[in-house]
Amino acid sequence: MCGQLVIGANVLILASCSGSTWVRLASIGEALYDRKHSITVLTPENNLQLLQSYGRGRGFTFRTYKTEGAAIATTMDKFNKMFWKGSKLEQLMALFEVTEDLNQFCGNMLDNTDVAKSAAQFDVVLADVIEICGSILPLVHRLPSAIVTGPFNVLIGRFGVPSPIAYVPSTDSELTDDMDFWDRTLNSLYYIRWLVFLYLDDSRRLSAFSHLPEQVLSAGVSQVDLVLVNRDFALEFPGPTNPNVINIGGIAAQPASALTDDLESFMVSSGGHGVILFSLGTYSGSMPASLAELFAGVFSQLPQKVLWKLNGETPPNLGANTRMMKWIPQNDILGHEKTKLFITHCGSNGMYEAVYHAVPMVFLPLAGDQPDNAVRGVARGLGVKLDIKALTEEELLQSIKTVLYNDSFKANAVRASRIMLDQPQQPMERAVWWIEYVIRHGGLSHLRSKGGDMPLYQYLLLDVIGIMFVSCMTGVVVLVWACRFCCRRVSSKAFKPKRE
């Protein structure tokens, strides 16, 4: 019965970033608000207007703090534009720039006296995994914490979750869980690359926050009480997990609401051909004009109606069957009976909404978890994957027709949807229950794995393997020496009588 109690707790949400990370946090915050909890959002002063532009945060109290440098939106805009032409290495280096800004914001937050004075009033801190202070602020003020993250295996591993390289694909590797020798070799190299990146990132953080107590810096993310992962095994490959790591894949998905009369009329006008939804999320505003014209040209050749989210100039060759909008009620469109296909950049939120509503997809991943999400979608038979940086009209047109007219993709989407929906709790209910569980017990130290506290050489048993190797080699050397000694003794005794 205790687990069913509604607790009027004070929840602090840290929100330095916008986009899908904010949408996830705000969705959870609104669900907690509906449970009569008080929700306070702490964000940089120059980020407040952007957060509020999303129309999320019902019942929230927004508080700001001053920061040095540009708004995170400026950095993220450069980050997004780079993805259209940058290599994986360039994308990784751009990530350094983002984390540098987040380090700065976290430092400004910790130095803010108002934040320090009010921190003790909160019962739990909720943040996205990219939020540097999501793990530091709770440790400084001894508060329970919950982190929300996408399906980044390399980051989830930092919370002490085992990540066997033999069958758990490393982040950004674009591998499945069925790996041959060369795949496992490549997966190992990606794993090492991420270890180097995280080591360098940690080193910068240690330098940036050297004034903090050593136990705070050394503990880091391993002391986070609850990890909410935006994944579901209807799409994700299975692998080990920990009791404080909870899957909430599809948290943004829900039954479709009624559309506006204008949109409903557009959907119905598609007749038997149906509607194709095309959205690249926050990357829509940075799409090159030449690529937008390519899409417009392909769409104009289709009998379906196309609903296209694009925050940019209208292509001159836009067909009469295509409607462009700066904002689209994505979940509601995907849940409409006329929607036949979703062309997506493979963001976690959008993909799980499509799985929820059993809509097959064409995958156009750009960066982050998107390429890995696309590989998972292809492995589940939910669609086809294309390289958006080397896309041709013929390839795009053929892929759209393949997914639309091959019934296996729709059948697989229906199966994945049934698996995802067949659970005792919906993802949002699960997230709220576990956050309240953290509040009720003042943290989850009894569920945290010690794996996150161990140095890498201990975690991988390198010290044990090293000692065993040295011991075995020592034994071999001693055995060889003993055999040679015995052989010499025997041969010398055998040779002596012959001489006599």
Automatic annotation (TrEMBL):
S-adenosyl-L-methionine as a keyword of this entry, yes or no, is no
Keyword terms, alphabetized: Glycosyltransferase, Membrane, Signal, Transferase, Transmembrane, Transmembrane helix
Compartment(s): Membrane
Q: How the protein sits in the membrane?
A: Single-pass membrane protein
Q: Which Pfam families match?
A: UDPGT
InterPro entries linked to this entry? UDP-glycosyltransferase, UDP_glucos_trans, UDP_glycos_trans_CS
Question: GO terms for CC?
Answer: membrane
Q: Which Gene3D superfamilies match?
A: Glycogen Phosphorylase B
- Please state the Enzyme Commission number of this protein: 2.4.1.17
> Could you cite one Gene Ontology molecular function of this protein?
glucuronosyltransferase activity
- Could you say which protein family the record assigns here? Belongs to the UDP-glycosyltransferase family.
Record's protein name: UDP-glucuronosyltransferase
Q: What organism does the record attribute this protein to?
A: Branchiostoma lanceolatum
Q: What is the lineage of its organism?
A: Eukaryota, Metazoa, Chordata, Cephalochordata, Leptocardii
